[in-house]
Amino acid sequence: MNRRWGRALGGLLLALLMAAYAGPGTAGATEAATGRIPSVGTAWDQPGPYEVAVDIEVVHTFYHPKNMGQRGELHPVVIWGNGTGAVPGIYSSLLRHWASHGFIVAAANTPTSNFAISMRAGIDVLEQRNADSSSPFYRKVDLEHIGSAGHSQGGAAAVNAALDPRVDTAVPIQPGPLTDPDLMDEPVFYLAGQRDLTVWPALVKALFRDSSHVPAVYGEVRGAGHLSSIGDGGDFRAPTTAWLRFWLMGDENARGTFFGPGCGSCTDSELWSGWDRNTRALQIPGPTA
């Protein structure tokens, strides 16, 4: 649905959106698709239960559970964009970490990811392989739950990729400026670094403020510079894993990290030097128990 048309519906649309955002982990499509992916409790920073395989191809590098669908489960997708001049290998430990939690990560090999063309093409490839009986991905990809993520230029690309209606949430890590949040309509988790001198936190906060039409959360990682998220993701690893598990797996253990009056991140001053949630994020219910 076109968001400009949706805005004209005013309060009615808001009510519908909040109903949809309130419970990604409730019984129904999400549970049927991903309910068998094992829980990790709240150990977001620890490796998940899956052994990981990596397929390096011309356009993409795929990080995924080695034995996909071993419990009859489907695996949600994360499409990834690199920073300027970077390749997926620079972020390999972080992308492996997500794959160990049950995600299929389609990382675009391009060092210029800003327009998210190769990122979105990763979804196309997985759609084809999910339908190909000769592929190890056959009927194992959860194409109903897709997130976009990236760092720096790739962070801007994560927002740009979310223009694709197949994308359900975005995780821009220290995103560059060449993007327009007004064009996306998915929940978004903006991450900044307190000591980032390349993408200043104020620039990321401006993107957050421009996202008032969707549930948006802003986290500024204490002491982090622009390169702190490469490798294994550093202090960015746990919160991004929790966010992706909540929105794409319906993992209710992660709800209280972000939502509700007593959200865990709201008071975690050791991790965050800055934390904010917009009005729509504040309307998402916290844990029920």
UniProtKB/TrEMBL annotation:
It comes from the Bacteria. Residues 1-22 form the signal peptide. Keywords: Signal. Residues 94-252 form the PET hydrolase/cutinase-like domain. InterPro entries: AB_hydrolase_fold, PET_hydrolase/cutinase-like. This is Acetylxylan esterase. It comes from Streptomyces tanashiensis.
